[in-house]
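All the exercises in this workshop are built on plain-text protein records. An example says more than a description, so a record of this kind follows:
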Amino acid sequence: MDKQARESPGSSTLLQDAATTPRQTPSFIRKLGAGIISDVRARTPWYFSDWTDAWNYRVIPATALIFFANVLPGIAFSLDLIETTQQYAVTEVLISSFMAAFVFSVFGAQPLTIAGVTGPITIFNKTIYDIIKKQSDAPNYLHFVGWVYFWAAIIHWVTAILNWCNFLKYVTLFSCDTFGFYVSWVYLQYGVQVITRQFSGDFEGALVGITLALLMLVTSFLFQRLSETTLFHRHIRRFLSDYGMPISLIVASGMAYWGRFNTSHPTTLPVGGAFQAANGRAWLVKFWELDGKWVGIALPFGMILWILFFFDHNVSSLIAQGSQFPLRKPPGFHYDFFLLGITTFIAGLIGVPAPNGLIPQAPIHTTSLLVMGKSSQKDIDEEVQITRPSSLSGNDSNGAVIKIEKSFDYSASRREAPIAVVEQRVSNLAQGSLCLVLLTGPFLHILGLVPRGVLAGLFWFMGLDALKGNGITVKLLYLIRDKTLTSPDDPLHKVRKSRLLMFVAIQLVAFGATFVVTQSIAAIGFPIIILLLVPLRIYVIPRLPFTQEELSILDGPTASPFTMESVGGSLHTP
């Protein structure tokens, strides 16, 4: 009986099928690295055009603008870290900026994203120093940070391979606006710190520093405001928009050496030797020589750094590719986050602050690459309908009947709108290469002539400029604006005032908690608070008394569906 069963046709067929059919690979295994592969496949066909498309004038002002907006704030952010730890110098900041620019412009999938030394990473590194220096058997600082960066790099690589960047589909404007609001205030705070530290020296020099800071601030906003008016030819207005901030910085720096200002000897940037690391140390940090106990202690610090970079770098990439920009080339979040792990590891290996995506520099870079054209007739008609209502009658403050006649707004008919973005790799690579130029002796000497007061003004300008366009600021201005002068088509009209106040209050509380923690000994944990913004938006806010329509107006996806496709699309949150 058994022999017959073994020799039955059906049984032999099953045995043949089992022998010839390959084992099914578990779906989990097949998905490993799928995001990275997808990003590479989507971006590779555009790689050649990323270089040829740079043959455009917009690349020149974008390079100049982002160079000043990236390098000088990075150095100023690091001043506290440099003076406190004595383990870094301006050279390390410039090397870090160049490394990030080179890697992400040549190999990255999102070359528009600007990476460099940020305020949060300087806070993180300084807090590590404050913690370990209190220990009786304190380890070598750079060795310990090297292991922190190494652990963080490993988690970066695991994140990219496991496609965890798909988590970005849960990141909405609620989280981005709150984090952007925090970063803007960090810029303003650092500007104040730069000024107040000068009072520890010559009082007259500190007053000159304040004067230079205000000069930098006012002239930058003056150029920006002129570029937004109807004055002058459009080419002149665009020139003011492109070069207003660099011109203001150069002029304000030059003022420090004019007349009696020069006799006050304002405080300038501390610079060392050309291509020389701090304290003359070797560029290779042998962090593997660290005692085993501290290797284990470095792991939780590495996890916190991963949280910071996961949110900070990816959000800056999202904002740099926001829905307001008419982009045509695909993104690549998984692949770029893998590259960020590589730059983090290299940073620990050579002893420089780890770079990551910059806010607000990344969106500034994309904005500077915008190609402007005439507005469509539909946009003009809508704008004229809003700004010039036809035969609208009403009463003035004295009760007299007034009438607004219909008129055509010729400025609207000539107004320009973004029609394209010069998506290329050269501007990012060029601004990073200029960092190497700064490391040469002559240019390092020029860098050492920049007064710190000018950097304070640059901090204030960039912080206030970022605040202007932040969603929290827009909502706060709406609440205090005269409603009779608000466009009737403003979507916020459909949101109850109490609900608008509640939504903004939640964002302000989250911002306040992050800012307060940053100023305390618990500053090392501030990235965790930032990451908690996402589950707060997904799980808590929908349970509050908001209607679905109100939440769709108050919040929304950060980038367009085209950009979010790399992380599995946008998640519709009620």
